[in-house]
Specification:
Elements: E1 2-10, E2 28-35, E3 44-48, E4 64-67, E5 75-83, E6 89-98, H1 99-104, E7 109-114, E8 117-125, E9 131-139, E10 153-163, E11 166-174, E12 189-192, H2 193-196, E13 205-211, E14 219-226, H3 228-236, E15 241-246, E16 249-264, E17 278-280, H4 286-291, E18 295-303, H5 327-339, E19 350-353, E20 355-357, E21 360-362, E22 365-366, H6 375-385, E23 392-393, H7 400-419, E24 424-432, H8 439-448, E25 454-460, H9 475-479, E26 484-488, H10 496-504, H11 507-517, E27 535-536, E28 545-549, E29 554-559
GO molecular function: calcium-dependent phospholipid binding
GO biological process, one term: cellular response to calcium ion
Domain C2: 1-112, 115-242
């Protein structure tokens, strides 16, 4: 999903000369850095705001548009500097913002204390600016493959970005490869304008054609520099050919077969649109619903059947190893940890199934003494406490009762929300070591859940063959709604971020489709007064980040790593 970050600050420390005349008041600007949160990532400066002169309470106009995946931890460091008259910069403070927690906060705004002042970050759905649908083909491309073979062309589109390091060209789109063809015809594509050109139809973009090489050392075949508007104009004219150039020489043509801009209906009146632009109603997004105050709640259901093995024996799935998490604990920590960012009360009802109490198998029992454990730590405590409760691990594996329970909870929650003019949606996380005993009964339970504001995530742990769970793939076609996702834990057991990203990536669309299917759009964004926002303590000491700031470029010179691994206690 495409989101937009805006920044402002209040009462920053005046490092330009405290107590002097207005001429000695700071001229602040902010630098936003994406912090590396996963192994293999590197920190990256996203960009900087404009300089707001002569104030210690700036409200920056520059915003930052970027991709955000619900299941992937994303942290941004915001560093504020005073721009000195000699061209140098002086620090005014810094703070770290977690994108998920900021989105989930009231008003989608977080505030952090920085050197006596306060820094505010707000994240909204990017209102970019529509879509660009295009289709290109090449004609008489110059072969770079040699005498006996033809090139395998593909193209990439780069956007001109004015960031902290000056003007750069950043990759925004890559086409498919057309094998062995100097007159390739590529597929029709649709790209968000916010991604392609930041909504500016006259922003320079570059289209570069390459010959594909398996080694990754793709050979340039030619380039054009243009804009979205120029591509639309070319499509509307008789001559749709644009000449590719390489090192000053003409090396073929790009033919614009299709170039259409679709603008949001509320924008076409304020922006001169190209001749073939059409208006459209922008589809609401997950972020729109969250911004509007939609309450998310998470319920956890854990498999205590005998197939998990004796929990007292090392190597079994429920063995509580003092040196680290088992797979159940890892799944709880990672997935509930991410979803907790959107759950305002931090209460997570936790249930078990498949254990025998007083001689009878129970397929929906409360874990732990509290009906709603608090936070991830509370869920983990509730999970562990069951093993000292006198249970006997039994069989079969049966999800139906916990699904019915989750349906009832979600419907009651939504009914209460509607009475207060609000919205609510629930997520059921089921963690199990094997396929269900009765697929038909499970499908019937899912059918009963179709009309509930509910998504169901099932995580399979252990070495079982989960092929019998493929019947879940038929649920969307049978019920007309995609609401269930099954993931094998072992495929992502080495990377908590990969697990959460794959597990949760369908939930935003499921939430949107549920409300849209009932004609319920997002509520207006929740607005909060400044005094209502809780200002969190200064985090500057926790930010291990050094920036090399000069007139020409801002780069990360040290630190910038905050690796998140939910699999580690």
């Amino acid at each position: 999903m495409i989101v937009e970050l805006s920044l402002r600050a209040v009462d920053l420390q005046n490092v330009a000369g405290f107590g002097m005349t207005s001429a000695g008041t700071a001229d602040p600007y902010a630098v936003v850095t994406h912090i590396a949160t996963a192994p293999g990532e590197t920190p990256k400066v996203i960009g900087k705001t404009e300089v707001v002169e002569n104030t210690t309470s700036p409200s920056w106009a520059k915003t930052f548009v970027f991709d955000y995946d619900l299941g992937t931890p994303c942290r941004l460091a915001v560093s504020v500097f005073h721009k000195r008259s000699d061209g140098g910069s002086e620090s005014m403070g810094a703070a770290m913002f977690d994108v998920g927690k900021t989105l989930g906060a009231r008003g989608s705004t977080k505030a952090k204390k920085v050197k006596g002042g306060t820094l505010f970050a707000t994240i909204r759905q990017s209102q970019g600016e529509g879509t660009f649908t295009f289709k290109f083909r090449g004609e008489s491309l110059k072969n770079v493959e040699g005498i006996f073979r033809k090139s395998d062309p593909f193209y990439e589109i780069f956007r001109n970005v004015d960031n902290a390091g000056g003007d750069t060209w950043e990759l925004q789109f890559r086409s498919e490869v057309v094998k062995d063809n100097l007159n390739p015809e590529w597929d029709t594509q649709t790209v968000e304008l916010s991604r392609l050109c930041g909504g500016d139809l006259d922003l320079p973009i570059r289209i570069k054609v390459f010959d594909y090489e398996r080694s990754g050392d793709h050979v340039p075949m030619g380039m054009i520099e243009t804009t979205v508007n120029k591509l639309v104009e070319a499509h509307d004219e008789d001559n749709r050919n644009i000449t590719l150039v390489k090192e000053g020489d003409e090396v073929g043509e790009m033919i614009v077969e299709l170039a259409e801009v679709a603008l949001p209906s509320d924008r076409d009146a304020e922006l001169p649109a190209p001749a073939s632009a059409v208006a459209y109603e922008q589809k609401p997004s997950f972020v729109d619903y969250i911004n509007g105050g939609c309450k998310l709640s998470v319920t956890v259901a854990i498999d205590y059947t005998g197939s998990n093995g004796n929990p007292m024996e090392p190597g079994t799935l429920h063995y509580l190893d003092p040196s680290g998490f088992n797979d159940y604990q890892k799944a709880i920590s990672a997935i509930v940890g991410i979803l907790s960012e959107y759950d305002d009360d931090q209460k997570f009802p936790t249930y078990g199934f498949g254990a025998k109490y007083d001689g009878e198998v129970d397929h929906c029992f409360q874990c732990g003494p509290e009906p709603e454990p608090e936070g991830v730590a509370g869920v983990l405590d509730a999970y562990r406490s069951v093993f000292s409760s006198g249970l006997i691990m039994s069989k079969p594996t049966d999800f139906t009762q916990v699904i019915d329970m989750a349906v009832a909870r979600s419907q009651a929650m939504q009914d209460q929300a509607e009475q207060n003019g609000k919205q609510a949606y629930a997520i059921l996380l089921i963690i199990s070591d094997g396929a269900v005993a009765d697929a038909d009964a499970t499908m019937e339970a899912l059918e009963r859940a179709v009309d509930a504001p509910l998504s169901i995530v099932i995580v399979g742990v252990g070495e079982e063959d989960f092929s019998d769970m493929k019947f879940l793939d038929d649920a969307p076609e049978k019920f007309g709604r995609d609401m269930v996702q099954f993931v094998e834990f072992n495929k992502y057991s080495e990377n908590s971020s990969a697990l959460t990203s794959h597990t949760l990536h369908e939930i935003p669309e499921q939430l949107v489709s549920y409300f849209q299917g009932r004609g319920s759009g997002p509520l207006p964004p929740v607005e909060v007064e400044e005094e209502e926002i809780v200002v969190e303590s200064e985090e500057e000491e926790e930010i291990d980040l050094s920036l090399n700031v000069d007139e020409e470029e801002i780069v990360v010179s040290g630190g910038g790593f905050n690796v998140y691994d939910a699999f580690v206690p």
